[in-house]
Amino acid sequence: MEGRKNVVLLGATGSVGASALQVLRRRRDCFRLLGISVHRDLERARDIAGEFGVQYLSVTGKKTPARPFPGIRRLPIEELVSLDSVDHVIVAIPGLTALRPLLSALGAGKKIALANKESVVVAGHLLRRALQTSKATLLPVDSEHSGIFQCLGSRTEVFFSKVPALKKIWLTASGGPFRDLTVEQLSRVTVADALRHPTWSMGAKISVDSATLANKGLEKIEAGWFYDIEPAEIDAVIHRESIVHGLVEFCDGTMLAQLSPSSMEFPIAHCLDFPKKSSVAAAGIDLLTLGALHFEAPDRVRFPCLALAEAAFEAGRSSPCDFEGANRVAVEAFLREDIAFMDIPKIIGEVLSTLVPVDLPDLTSVEERYVEVRRRTLEKISRTRR
Ligand SMILES: NC(=O)c1ccc[n+]([C@@H]2O[C@H](COP(=O)([O-])OP(=O)(O)OC[C@H]3O[C@@H](n4cnc5c(N)ncnc54)[C@H](OP(=O)(O)O)[C@@H]3O)[C@@H](O)[C@H]2O)c1
User: Per-residue confidence at 162, pLDDT binned at 50, 70, 90?
Assistant: First the structure.
């Protein structure tokens, strides 16, 4: 199978990683999984390496595996993404840990499928700067941004630049598992309830972000960087069916929408095949079974994390970094059952009120700010702990 493109998958053992592997299984004739990164799950890494004939492995969380990986070369993650033989890099690791390997992949001119939204939220300005001097292509895996990108068709091939005649971007949200609960009911939900997402199967952190609507706030900030547009030009709408992923409204009053089943395989396949449309068959939507599509306004009183993220977007400078850092630590505490669900927005709001927005001109200032936000949030949590 000559002429296959070499792929590196960061976060191969995660939820997006699993969807990426599923896409690669169906396209062995076009793509070869050359390298993977995992954090701790070495047993799953061994299975994936065996199934796909992986040659390179990066382990970010555990130093020494109990059993060796015969025939597989271990590399630091930044070296793995920069290998000359690599064509595509799929970034499906969480949080700010993605930022350094992402910048390395940009520097090495790779075709990047980016699932990690936090790096764009926190350091969109650094990514934009890196893209300006790079031959790399950056494509979104987040389903809403992939939907918008597909709606824009040939209107843009380069992220981080203005799209002519674009009036507004609409991001859809399922509303999460608590969309019909009262504030009083929300104060009693458990971790298990929060992880029971109605339409998507995802990792724990993003599932909680979907339940609080913080995820939609992060995605609004992400869209601001991708399309160089103002907060007022990006809106979120609850769409229970999770079939329409993104909508684009143009100045001439027309709208385009992208529809597909709620599976991350669709946006990942779109990134790998871009700029072509894939001819590999996949089951789509049956419109007659679906019958109707519904759209509602999000409720920022019951879901204050959305309003907090929007305020951070408006404030700019370090505020998106502050929001992402405080949210991540608060969600981790909720997952450990140290705090209640409704403590998440309360803690974020309190932490953000203690921080003055500043410019973060480089990677070091971004990382230092993030550490400081984490410290302050942990301190608040230790005083809130149930
Ligand atoms: N899940 C979705 O549907 C979805 C949709 C859109 C965007 N995203 C974004 O995609 C990213 C991954 O989400 P996910 O839901 O797939 O997460 P996940 O299921 O928790 O998987 C995380 C993956 O990253 C690895 N990892 C964990 N901590 C790490 C660290 N500190 N450094 C390096 N690697 C680490 C894990 O390895 P081990 O298994 O070895 O620990 C695993 O392979 C997030 O940024 C999320 O916001 C996800």
Answer: confident
Range of the structural domain that residue 104 is part of: 5-140
Q: Please count the structural domains in the chain.
A: 1
Ligand 1 environment, Cβ below 6 A = 11-17, 38-41, 60, 92-94, 97, 115-118, 142, 200, 202-203, 206, 264
Instruction: Note the pLDDT tens digit of each residue in 89-147.
Output: 999 999 999 999 999 999 999 999 999 999 999 999 999 999 999 999 999 999 999 99
Number of neighbouring beta carbons within 10 Å of residue 47: 12
Entry pTM:
0.96
Whether 158 shows a pLDDT value over 70: the answer reads no
Q: Which domain CATH number covers 60?
A: 3.40.50.720
Q: How far is CA 192 from CA 177, 242, 303, in A?
A: 11, 21, 18
Tokens of 168: 């507004």
> How far apart are the C-alpha atoms of 93 and 134, rounded to whole Å?
22
Residue nearest to atom 6 of ligand 1 (CA): 142
**Ligand 1, atom 42: nearest CA belongs to which residue?**
14
Rounded to the nearest angstrom, the distance between the alpha carbon of 91 and the centre of ligand 1 is 9
Q: Would you say residue 40 lies in a domain?
A: yes
